[in-house]
From TrEMBL, chain A:
The gene is purS. Its main location: cytoplasm. Pathway: Purine metabolism; IMP biosynthesis via de novo pathway; 5-amino-1-(5-phospho-D-ribosyl)imidazole from N(2)-formyl-N(1)-(5-phospho-D-ribosyl)glycinamide: step 1/2. It catalyses: N(2)-formyl-N(1)-(5-phospho-beta-D-ribosyl)glycinamide + L-glutamine + ATP + H2O = 2-formamido-N(1)-(5-O-phospho-beta-D-ribosyl)acetamidine + L-glutamate + ADP + phosphate + H(+). Part of the phosphoribosylformylglycinamidine synthase complex involved in the purines biosynthetic pathway. Catalyzes the ATP-dependent conversion of formylglycinamide ribonucleotide (FGAR) and glutamine to yield formylglycinamidine ribonucleotide (FGAM) and glutamate. The FGAM synthase complex is composed of three subunits. PurQ produces an ammonia molecule by converting glutamine to glutamate. PurL transfers the ammonia molecule to FGAR to form FGAM in an ATP-dependent manner. HAMAP family: PurS. It holds the Pfam family PurS. PANTHER family: PHOSPHORIBOSYLFORMYLGLYCINAMIDINE SYNTHASE SUBUNIT PURS. Belongs to the PurS family. This is Phosphoribosylformylglycinamidine synthase subunit PurS. Part of the FGAM synthase complex composed of 1 PurL, 1 PurQ and 2 PurS subunits.
TrEMBL record, chain B:
It catalyses: N(2)-formyl-N(1)-(5-phospho-beta-D-ribosyl)glycinamide + L-glutamine + ATP + H2O = 2-formamido-N(1)-(5-O-phospho-beta-D-ribosyl)acetamidine + L-glutamate + ADP + phosphate + H(+); L-glutamine + H2O = L-glutamate + NH4(+). GO terms for cellular component: cytoplasm. The active site is at residues 88, 197, 199. Part of the FGAM synthase complex composed of 1 PurL, 1 PurQ and 2 PurS subunits. Signal peptide: none annotated. Pathway: Purine metabolism; IMP biosynthesis via de novo pathway; 5-amino-1-(5-phospho-D-ribosyl)imidazole from N(2)-formyl-N(1)-(5-phospho-D-ribosyl)glycinamide: step 1/2. It is found in: Cytoplasm. It comes from Actinomadura litoris. This is Phosphoribosylformylglycinamidine synthase subunit PurQ. HAMAP family: PurQ. GO terms for biological process: 'de novo' IMP biosynthetic process.
Length: 80, 226
């Protein structure tokens, strides 16, 4: 069994008010110097067998059809 | 002559299917209950995707409902010209299904917004807006947490230039939608997505106005004349 990580982030040009809310809190907590925060999602997908090319291809299809909406989000895949 | 038959889909988590069916009846058509898990549109003349939180809206609003068994039939029929209206969550499902461009994201203010909203009708020629006139102002409730319409600038320009922005917010943009967009349609004008809830403004007893009824009478008139 292998674990494949899919990181999903809003495209850079799309406003992320959740990230902004987090970033606004940081100075109140005493953390200076943070310019911006953007919030994303991480999926860990467990697949049967090794994380070979076929398995990664399948995860890629799952990511682009369900886990991410390519209209607004980018995703990256890596093996854990 | 038989009344026009307008289907209303119930997904797990739909909230406004009953109100949508009621608005369909008030407009003079026969509402037909459709179930997300079937593969059968029951021969309806038009379909409404109601508001709510289909499949809990886990992942993204509308993302899982897009893969409901019945959506395969809806997508094929919509491409063939069947009139489809997606309200709120229904609008989100239509975008996730790629029947409409763009997407709906969490409100810019992050709060759930519930208010009577002024709108302007920008396109009075779609299957669902022909009973209005261009520029007409409506007051219709809006209630959503994922109502911020976004699309890339090229798509927004194309929507505006081709008259595919169906309604815009007036006075106050409740969710940060780009270009104040409250509703859009596809190229053919048979598929309309709308964030405000016209089915909640269909009778004076329960709504702030009856301004929403026109969406339903528009489709009834179109079907009767078809």
């Amino acid at each position: 069994m292998a674990r494949v990580v899919v990181d999903v982030m809003l495209k850079p040009e799309i406003l992320d008010p959740q990230g902004q809310a987090i970033a606004r809190k940081l100075p109140q907590m005493g953390y200076e110097g943070v310019v911006a925060v953007r919030q994303g999602k991480r999926f860990e997908v467990e697949v049967e067998g090794p994380a070979d090319e076929a398995a990664l291809e399948r995860v890629h299809t799952i990511a682009e059809t369900l886990l991410a909406n390519p209209v607004i989000e980018n995703f990256e895949i890596r093996v854990l | 002559m038989d009344a026009a038959r307008v289907g209303v889909i119930t997904f797990p988590g739909s909230l406004d299917d009953k109100d949508a069916a009621r608005a369909v009846r008030l407009a003079g058509a026969e509402p037909v209950a459709l179930w997300h898990g079937d593969h059968d549109l029951r021969g309806v003349d038009a379909v409404v995707l109601p508001g709510g939180f289909s499949y809990g809206d886990y992942l993204r609003a509308g993302a899982i409902a897009r893969f409901a068994p019945l959506m395969a039939e809806v997508v094929d029929a919509a491409k063939g010209g069947l009139p489809v209206l997606g309200i709120c969550n229904g609008f989100q499902v239509l975008c996730e299904s790629h029947l409409l461009p763009g997407a709906l994201l969490p409100n810019a203010g992050l709060h759930f917004v519930c208010r009577d909203q002024r709108l302007s009708v920008e396109n009075a020629e779609t299957a669902w807006t022909s009973e209005y006139r261009e520029g007409q102002e409506l007051v219709i409730p809006i209630k959503n947490v994922d109502g911020r319409y976004v699309a890339d600038r090229e798509t927004l320009t194309e929507l505006a230039d081709s008259g595919r922005i169906v309604a815009r917010y007036l006075d106050l943009n409740p969710n940060g939608s780009l270009d104040d967009i409250a509703g859009i349609c596809n190229e053919a004008g048979n598929v309309v997505g709308l964030m405000p809830h016209p089915e909640h403004a269909a009778e004076s007893l329960t709504g702030p106005s009856t301004d929403g009824l026109g969406f339903f009478t528009s489709i009834v008139k179109r079907l009767v004349n078809a």
